[in-house]
Design brief:
The complex is a heterodimer of chains A (160) and B (537).
Chain A: E1 12-13, H1 18-43, H2 49-73, E2 75-78, E3 82-87, E4 92-98, E5 104-108, H3 111-116, E6 118-124, E7 132-138, H4 139-155
Antiparallel strand pairs in A: 1-2, 2-3, 3-4, 5-6, 6-7
Helix pairs in contact in A: 1-2
Chain B: E1 19-21, H1 26-55, H2 64-70, H3 74-98, E2 100-103, E3 107-112, E4 118-123, E5 127-134, H4 136-140, E6 143-150, E7 157-163, H5 164-179, H6 186-189, H7 194-204, H8 207-217, H9 237-245, H10 248-265, H11 270-294, E8 297-301, E9 304-309, E10 314-319, E11 324-331, E12 341-347, E13 363-368, H12 370-380, H13 386-397, E14 407-408, E15 425-429, E16 432-437, E17 442-448, E18 454-459, H14 461-465, E19 468-474, E20 483-488, H15 489-509, H16 515-521, H17 525-530
Antiparallel strand pairs in B: 1-2, 2-3, 3-4, 5-6, 5-10, 6-7, 8-9, 9-10, 11-12, 11-17, 12-13, 14-15, 15-16, 16-17, 18-19, 19-20
Helix pairs in contact in B: 1-3, 9-11, 10-11, 12-13
Classes of the chains: A alpha+beta (160), B alpha+beta (537).
Chain lengths: 160, 537
């Protein structure tokens, strides 16, 4: 009887290459935390240091395993008057933002994304909590999507 | 810039699209604080001298004043002080000369600065509120500050200082220009202008002093057009004092007091000396808040909600229609036996001045009864049909009322929210989402769909186990966070669909940012709700 939160819509997926960005990020994070816990264990001589290290390694491994599924779970759809975004498998999140509420569109590229020719697109409204971000779009797609969203927002502008 | 003849005749000469300067006493009013500070420093430095003079204690060495006196440099020192003051006044005068403003059809502009010039332009349709502040010092001189609130960090336009009545006039004119009603000056011309009001009083109390006294004794809201600005809420001193005593700050004080008592009993008397200044500060905090909210008034005008407060330094804030993004009616646990409630709002603009409750100016009603809340809500949420809003608010505030208006969380939510699940629900009436949640701090939140930024639903593993979800409505920053922590999954999906579709539909039909142009073709609730506040002709 339990029910997954799901919205039947034709979601567009982000680029499959985005998995690599997530994996590199996870590995980097894992390396930094492992180094920190190693320091605690070997240099600061804290006995629970090795437990923390094992925990960090396990978390990193789990994240690496689910990375492809998480990347596939990100989807967006341009509906008639609003942008619909979904993220997450365990913690699912759906957001709908009317185009007219757009304040600005941000397109950013991190070092790994740039190497893979990807870009992240962020839709900013007057509410800080909106936090709508579509990561891992091919650069040309990100540019067209940005122009399309700005155009849609222009035609449906609402005052603040 | 346009010719003045295009404007309705009742516009003041300040809103004619030309550049104007501020009140001539501005340098004095701005410098007044500096002057008092300088005097304070001098007196503080002379304290030793004065004690010495009266009690003939041994001479204190190393005091700069002593050094000056001993070497016979008193004249030079005084000259230096005089030059410094003159320079300061000269600087202030110059900055007054260079400080000018212009109110046009589209925007309010301010130019200021002597060396580095700044030119600030605020579009009229982006104005989030207009406040008139009168600090004590300025009130004595019959001056007031006009603050035009716009969205954005530190983006407000300040006009300090203006003559008191002029500030009111200017506010009315800016609001009228912003409302888009350039061709219908009829609603204002039938009311007495403040100049007439003031001159009427000048007959009874002769002279400038009389006018000042009059202005001083008048409530914070000397409202020119929507006469009478009868407040829909009367602030009872007892309730106000009670609400302050029964606040979280008092609990903090009690804990501190307990710590002090424990400290003293165990012989650590020094704690007293550490705590005492803080206790005096706390006393000041209470009296300041009390004094501020004591002369609280709230009323509806054709150009929005007007909130006035303050005893010595007064403020009068105007929120034009369509600027309120969320309204929250809340009751802290300690207030429950007395059935007191508070109202807070989210707006896009934030004033630097402190509001009626002494905090940021997001508290619209510091404390009030259920009746007061029912009186204030129509002003803040003009779009809803009166009886439905009243029913929903009552259901949120009391247990006796009909609870069926809210679609509450299902019974299985008790595993996650054992106490509050019965009170966690929502309803949508006339384009406003109404949420209620909380059992310790009871809250009823109203979010107009026309100004909703986005909607979100979430589900984690724990909620999935119970077939529940979480819903959030995103509005501009503020004290109100509209969210439902538990809601049935299918209800969440339904809410998501209804709210996201409603947000588009209501935003498209919303014209409240140009409220008077809308009045002509589609008479909406804004005007219906404020009609009874119009001056009788």
């Amino acid at each position: 009887m339990t029910q997954r939160l799901d919205i039947a819509a034709d979601f567009k997926r982000v680029s499959p290459k985005y998995v690599l960005v997530v994996i590199v990020g996870t590995l980097l994070g894992g390396a930094i935390f492992s180094a920190a816990t190693l320091l605690l264990w070997l240099v600061a001589h804290l006995w629970w240091g090795w437990i923390a290290l094992v925990a960090v390694l396990v978390v990193t491994l789990v994240q690496l395993i689910i990375a492809p599924r998480r990347a596939r779970a990100i989807g967006y759809q341009l509906r008639q008057d609003d942008l619909l975004l979904r993220r997450g498998i365990m913690f699912q999140r759906f957001v709908a933002v009317p185009y007219g509420r757009m304040q600005l569109i941000d397109v950013t590229r991190g070092p790994v994304s740039r190497a893979l020719g990807l870009a992240d697109l962020r839709f900013v409204t007057a509410a800080a909590s909106t936090n709508v971000m579509i990561p891992g779009l091919p650069e040309s797609d990100a540019a067209t999507l940005r122009d399309r969203l700005v155009e849609l927002a222009e035609s449906r502008r609402a005052g603040l | 810039m346009s010719a003045p003849s295009e404007h309705p005749p009742s516009l003041t000469r300040y809103a004619d699209g030309e550049w104007h300067r501020l009140h001539p006493a501005t340098p004095l009013l701005k410098g007044g604080i500096a002057l008092i500070a300088v005097l304070g420093v001098i007196v503080a430095n002379l304290r030793e001298r004065l004690i010495d003079f009266f009690f003939h204690t041994p001479r204190y060495n190393g005091d700069p004043i002593d050094a000056i006196y001993d070497r016979g440099l008193t004249g030079w020192a005084l000259l230096a002080v005089a030059v410094a003051i003159l320079l300061a006044i000269g600087g202030f005068y110059l900055s007054w000369r260079m400080h000018s403003f212009r109110v046009g059809d589209e925007a309010v502009e301010v130019r200021s600065g002597i060396l580095s010039r700044s030119h600030r332009k605020a579009r009229l349709d982006r104005i989030q509120g207009i406040n008139v502040h009168r600090p004590l010092f300025a009130r004595i001189f019959g001056a007031a500050k006009l603050e035009i609130v716009v969205a954005g960090h530190d983006a407000n336009v300040h006009l300090a200082y203006l003559a008191s009545g002029l500030a009111e006039d200017l506010r009315r004119d800016i609001l009228r220009l912003a409302s888009g009603a350039r061709s219908s000056p009829t609603q204002v011309t039938d009311a007495a202008t403040p100049a007439e009001l003031a001159s009427g009083r000048r007959v009874t109390v002769s002279g400038v002093v009389g006018t000042r006294v009059d202005e001083f004794l008048r409530p914070a809201d000397l409202d020119p057009d929507a006469a009478p600005p009868a407040s829909v809420v009367a602030m009872h001193p007892g309730r106000l004092a009670g609400s302050l005593v029964l606040s979280g700050f008092t609990i903090f004080l009690l804990i501190v007091a307990a710590a002090v008592v424990a400290g003293v009993l165990s012989g650590r008397y020094w704690i007293l000396f550490v705590i005492l200044p803080g206790m005096l500060g706390a006393f000041g905090f209470y009296t300041r808040r009390f004094g501020k909210a004591l002369r609280y008034s709230i009323s509806g005008t054709a150009d929005g909600v007007r909130v006035g407060f303050g005893l010595f330094a007064t403020s009068s804030e105007t929120l034009p229609p369509g600027r309120i993004h969320a309204v929250e009616v809340l009751q802290p646990l300690l207030w429950r036996p007395f059935k007191w409630w508070q109202i807070r709002i989210n707006t896009a603009g934030h004033s630097r001045q402190r509001g009626a409750a002494g905090e940021s100016n997001t508290t619209t009603l510091p404390v009030g009864s259920i009746g007061d809340v029912q009186n204030v809500l129509p002003l803040l949420l003009p779009g809803i049909a009166d009886e439905r809003r009243a029913a929903v608010a009552l259901a949120g505030m009391t247990r006796d009322a009909d609870q069926s208006v809210f679609a509450d969380a299902p019974r299985r939510a008790r595993w996650l929210r054992p106490f509050s699940w019965r009170r966690t629900g929502y309803t949508i009436i006339d384009g406003v989402v109404v949420l209620r949640h909380g059992v310790v701090w009871r809250r009823i939140v109203f979010v107009p769909l026309a100004r909703l930024q986005s909607v979100e639903i979430e589900q984690g593993p724990l909620r999935r186990m119970f077939d529940l979800a979480e819903a959030k409505l995103h509005t501009v920053e503020g004290p109100v966070h509209p969210r439902l922590s538990v809601i049935a999954t299918d209800a969440a999906l339904e809410l998501f669909d209804t709210v996201s579709a409603g947000a588009i539909r209501w935003a498209a039909s919303d014209t409240s940012h140009r409220w008077n142009t809308a009045a002509a073709d589609a008479p909406n609730g804004v005007d219906a709700a404020t009609e009874n506040q119009e001056p009788a002709t």
